[in-house]
Design a protein that fits this description.
Number of domains: 2
Order of helices and strands: EHEHEHEHEHHEEHEHEHEE
CATH topology of the largest domain: Rossmann fold
CATH class of the largest domain: Alpha Beta
Mean pLDDT: 86
Number of helices: 9
Oligomer: single chain
Shape: globular
Largest sheet: 7 strands, parallel
Number of strands: 11
Strand order of the largest sheet: 3-2-1-4-5-6-7
């Protein structure tokens, strides 16, 4: 009987972060959501699935295991959660953690021997490249966005920008398939196979219902008001100052407008911009909402 095809998801960060944790990254939530969609499809194709999550703290290990249990995903995949042992920030501890991660990954690879390794972001793909010196598999590089440009714009040291540029170019060169965020993604090597990975949603959960929409607006006290909704993060590339400036200008032509900002946590960036334009804020559940009344 032929051995089933297998894939290993290599996540270099925590699989489950709570929104109120310091350093919360919404990308981990995005990965969990995507993994939940893809896992049943892979199992339908009789593929063996392994999940590896690195650099967890002790609580995050528990969160990850509990999430797999509650969603019953533990029945469809093998999961390994490794706890970070060194401090962040300084170069030597980072290198030590890199070696520890490679040691743990080597053991998992010996056990699972996957046909495909899915490297999440630059670091995940870099681990895959190093493991490729010892094992044979196809490497998928989930490029996410242009991390090099993000670091340069935010004023990272020149050596760090160069290092990440080197890592990204190496990942592009050595991977068998690149997931990009756009059909027009720059810097891909000639002939490199890539697939644009667009946003998606669960139509079973997010579908328009006129009656529910009216009930929700009534519940928030927003009947007959124009509502602008932003749902996402407050990262610099989301252009928070420009977004609030647009709303302030929009208020001039629609004084009864309401700005609902849907974020995992309260955002000081949004609040600072709102206050600078004398826009009062009202907080409701996980919403930071700005009323003009």
């Amino acid at each position: 009987m032929a051995k089933p095809k297998s894939i290993l998801y290599l996540l270099p960060v925590a699989f489950f972060q709570r929104p109120d944790e310091p350093g919360f990254q919404v990308q981990t939530l995005n990965f969990r959501t995507a993994f939940g969609f893809v896992l049943p499809e892979l199992r339908k194709r009789e593929m063996d699935v392994t999940l590896v999550s690195l650099n967890n703290n002790s609580k995050q290990v528990g969160y990850g295991k509990e999430h797999l249990k509650q969603t019953r995903q533990e029945e469809s995949c093998r999961a390994f959660f490794f706890e970070r042992k060194t401090r962040r920030g300084r170069l030597f501890p980072q290198l030590m953690q890199l070696l520890l991660n490679l040691k743990w990954l080597y053991r998992v690879m010996k056990t699972t021997n996957p046909d495909i390794v899915y490297g999440y972001n630059d670091l995940g793909a870099l681990y895959g490249i190093i493991l490729g010196l010892f094992f044979r598999f196809r490497l998928v590089y989930d490029m996410r966005g242009d991390r090099v440009n993000e670091m340069a714009v935010q004023g990272a040291p020149w050596w760090r920008v160069r290092l990440y540029r080197f890592i990204r170019n190496l990942c592009l060169k050595k991977s068998d398939l690149v997931f990009t965020v756009s059909d027009e993604c720059k810097d891909l090597p000639p002939g490199k196979r890539h697939v644009a990975k667009y946003n998606f949603y669960d139509a079973g959960r997010f579908c328009y219902d006129a009656q529910k929409a009216r009930e929700m607006k009534t519940g928030f006290g927003l009947e007959n008001r124009f509502v602008l909704v932003y749902s996402g993060t407050d990262k610099y590339y989301q252009m928070v100052p420009q977004m609030v400036e647009f709303f302030a200008r929009f208020r001039e032509v629609c004084p009864d407008a309401f700005f609902m900002i849907n974020l995992p946590n309260e955002s000081e960036k949004f609040l600072t911009e709102l206050r600078s334009r004398n826009l009062p804020d009202i907080r409701m559940a996980f919403f930071i909402s700005t009323s003009l009344s």
